[in-house]
Amino acid sequence: MAVIPSVGLMLLNRGPVLGVGTVGDLVDTGVAAEEAGWDSVWVGDSFLAKPRVESIVLLAAIAARTKRVRLGPACMASTPLREPLLLAHQWANLDLLSQGRTIFVACQGGGPGSGEFAQELVNLGLQRSSRMRRMEEAIEIMRLAWGGDGVDFDGTYTQFSDVTLLPKPAQRVPIWIAANPDLKKPNNVETAYRRVARYADGWQTTHTTVDDIARSWEIIQQYFDEAERPLPHDFQVSVCSNICLAESKEAAFDESKRFLDAHSMTDYSSEFLQRWVAMGTPDDCVQYLRRFVAAGATSILLRISSFDQAGQFERITREVLPALRD
Predict the structure, then answer these.
(1) What's the N-to-C CA distance of the chain in angstroms?
(2) What CATH number has the domain bearing residue 305?
(3) Measured between alpha carbons, how far is residue 72 from residues 62, 129, 220, 308 in Å?
(4) How far is Cα 162 from Cα 99, in angstroms, rounded to an integer?
(5) DSSP letters spanning 48-63
(6) How far apart are CA 80 and CA 91, in angstroms?
(7) pTM
(8) How does residue 112 score in pLDDT terms, banded at 50, 70 and 90?
(9) Residue-wise pLDDT tens digits, 126-146
């Protein structure tokens, strides 16, 4: 039976905007997750599309009050929207504050449930087609600025010369890439997964089936071979899932749909939620999540898909987390 190596908690930093908890509650829950034995704490990220407590600010607050848990965004949907050199500087300082516990997850944004993403791009004066290259340049600039002094960069969207970014991060920050291409669209699959093989220390995915994760992982490894880049021994396959405990799958589904529709400003289909939410009794949820490990996942990140964030956190910590490691 598969045992999940790493389990992370995704905080609802959109909660204060929706009237669910406060900023203080988010920080306290991050601290409680460390004390309860969770391996990592994650936050969502968006700017105008789905407003929330800003991700780097929230992670910094949690970093200051924790000592062990890894910290990161799931995922950094605003990566193409931010000025990359400033982002590199902010993240280096966050990593220093956390004493080397951060993971950066680059993301181009705009997937299902992205809220007012198109309007966000209009208001920021960015073309949708520029997102992929902007994200790639951000990764290149972060690695360059973190690793050297007096560095130059001449990219499509960003140029600078003789830059020394100080202070440096406390570690070589792992950079993962979030990618969820439709496997029925070969060109999208090739573009997305070749990028993972070219740039990433890990792959993060969500709202996909177990079979598609297994197939995607095979494709990514194939592109590593074609790029003649050795697959890092610590390369991570991270699956983001929602979770809702109830006495039945039906009750958990109803609560998850009510919550996720409000969270993402959309109307999710039943089929979509069935592959995106661990729902039902603790045993139902554990069995559902273990299937992802069998498909290649090295970590599972859980977001509570219920308006009862505190109650669900206590139950999941008590009834699901130990069983995943049993």
Answers:
(1) 9
(2) 3.20.20.30
(3) 11, 26, 22, 23
(4) 27
(5) SSS--S-HHHHHHHHH
(6) 15
(7) 0.95
(8) confident
(9) 999 999 999 999 999 999 999
